[in-house]
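Class prep. Write one:
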Amino acid sequence: MLLEDLQVILKVAEFRSITAAAENLDMRTATASVAVKRVEKALGIELFIRTTRQLRLSSAGERYIPQCQQALLMLNNAKRDMQDELDIVDGELRIAVSSDLGRNMVLPWLDEFMEKYPKVSLRVSISDTNIDFYRDAVDIALRYGSPTDASLYGFKVCDVPGVLCASPSYLEKHGTPKHPNELVTHNGLFYQMYEVVYDHWQFSKNNADFKIKMSSNRIANDADLVRRWCVAGHGLAAKSCLDMSSDLLSGKLVNVLPDFKPRPTELWLVCPSKQSITPAVRLLRDMFREKCKQILEQLVNKGILDKNT
């Protein structure tokens, strides 16, 4: 009986479907079906009752599945403990990253990481939507904002100041605002998450807060597209300074209203369980922290960010 077959059995039990389990495990349905039959033959029992419309656990399957879960967990824990002891850095990293930060900064970092640790393989999910660790095939996620689910494990990578950005060409054509209240005459470039459009921008200065309702002719559910519009001179964008760092450092974008601070955020590396925190994940965390620290220092040294931000 193969270890991979047991993993198929657990996924079939979870999804109540061989097809759905195969899709989740990135294999053909026929391969998953053969794995189920192989385990049932080895045990001499039927784990699932199949009809033309549904699949459900048999009484024997209901007894077997919890024991199978415990056995696989023990094997995974033993493997992880051995790797920790020997500092082995290998295996597949299944990581989710946001669109802008992921495409423009994290992917080159991951290339550098894999060059240093060639036994690591990579599977990347790029999306701005929230990750469901129990639905999506993901082990770790690099995300803005601290985890709200107490059952998750997370490492804070860094604090991330926000910036209000525009291209020099946009400011030359429309003028540079000196106060948040002047933004109502400008075009905002909006980010949308699900059905929520982020069209209220908040700023603070000397403990005073300013909330501005912006207008826009461009809205996207992809943060990378918002950045591209901003670089192209189509309007102002309120974004993470990490997302905009390369364009700010190159002069393609300007930090507008630097004395008025947009809402800051935090960058976190999140894992669904302690078992997900492998030596590779800890090394990746350390690399992310160092890379972000270097970028923030560059922004401060060039006067784009205040060192007290």
Remarks:
- The two ends are 58 Å apart (CA to CA).
- The chain has three domains: 3-85, 87-160+266-301, 162-263.
- Residues 59-86 form the longest helix (28 residues).
- The chain has a mean pLDDT of 87.
